[in-house]
Amino acid sequence: MMRLRTALALAAIVAVPSLLATPSLAQDYPSRPVKVIVPFGAGGPADVTARQIGNILQESFGQPFVIENRTGAGGVIGTQEVVKSPPDGYTLLMMSNTQTANESLVPQRKYELMRDLAPIAPVNYSDLVIVVHPSVQAKTLQEFIALAKSQPGKLNYASSGQGTPYHMAGELFKAMAGIDVLHVPYRNSGEARSGVIGGQVQMMIDAVPAMAPNVAQNQVRALAVTGPARSPIFPELPTVAEAALPGFEAVLHYGIVAPAGTPKPIIDKLNAALRSVVMTDEFKQKLAADGTEPLASTPEEYAADIDKEETKWSAIVKKSGAKEQ
């Protein structure tokens, strides 16, 4: 089934009417402003990343790349708007792994990710950090796991909502650690962060750049980061895999996709523009300041990565019993 979805996605990229898929179309593109839909709130990691990428593409092509936030339903509303847009390269989507989780979490959505969207390019990924309120009697990740096992169902953790990367990372952590910790969904990351800082919840898995100031001010205690390697923002912290759970990895992925049927010359032109910039030393330094790392691949490789993410998170959704809010 997953191989079939990947094949459908690749077919959506290349199966374009011959009249559209002409070299002249790619040469002329873009001839007017391009809209980039961010299906999450302003000021969050997806929004910040989209604006960075918008500036890059605007410099590359000499046309405005206008960022528009279309929030609601855990990213479904903004994603649906892009799916319904003309496949001409003038409406793009800033995608995260929230959309891959939604494939299993939101069965009533009116689109299928790998059928109705054409991958263009990944952009970056960033680690998450596991933090606890200072009142929690755990100084290390191992101690927190032991505490949770000794008090099943009595500890809780915050997220910015069902299906978000923070929620899915928490469910993956619970599954691999074998602990029973209650999920408390908030309306957004800011409210979830306030919940753990205020002690209403004991634990949260949050984006490294967002939570770093709170860690520095001792409002929360950081236990571990969730990526494949230690974070330059928290070099003293072990990874979850290193500290307690070998094989654990949960990061924020961001990338750009377009409506299925967008001409391949336009897909390739956008991909080439992004790849030429995101791996430069200058852009890497900008990302490093926020604790993020660049990603670059072909559209086909990105499609395979999305398929892999969907498989991973669908298993976690099924195991956790998570439901759409």
Question: What is this structure's SSE topology?
Answer:
Layout: H1 2-14, H2 23-28, E1 34-38, H3 45-61, E2 65-69, H4 76-83, E3 91-96, H5 97-105, H6 113-116, E4 117-132, H7 141-150, E5 156-159, H8 165-177, E6 182-185, H9 189-197, E7 203-207, H10 208-216, E8 221-225, H11 240-243, E9 251-259, H12 264-278, H13 281-289, E10 292-294, H14 299-320
Parallel strand pairs: 1-2, 1-3, 5-6, 5-7
Antiparallel strand pairs: 3-9, 4-7, 4-8, 4-9, 4-10
Helix pairs in contact: 1-14, 3-12, 5-14, 8-14
Structural notes for this entry:
- Helix 8 (165-177) packs across helix 14.
- Strand 5, helix 8 (165-177) and strand 6 form a beta-alpha-beta unit.
- Strands 1, 2, 3, 4, 5, 6, 7, 8, 9 and 10 form a ten-stranded mixed β-sheet that branches.
- The two termini are 27 Å apart.
- The protein has 325 residues and is of the alpha/beta class.
- The chain has two domains: 2-126 and 253-320, 3-Layer(aba) Sandwich (D-Maltodextrin-Binding Protein, domain 2), CATH 3.40.190; 127-243, D-Maltodextrin-Binding Protein, domain 2 (3-Layer(aba) Sandwich).
- Helices cover 46% and strands 19% of the residues.
- It is globular, with a radius of gyration of 20 Å.
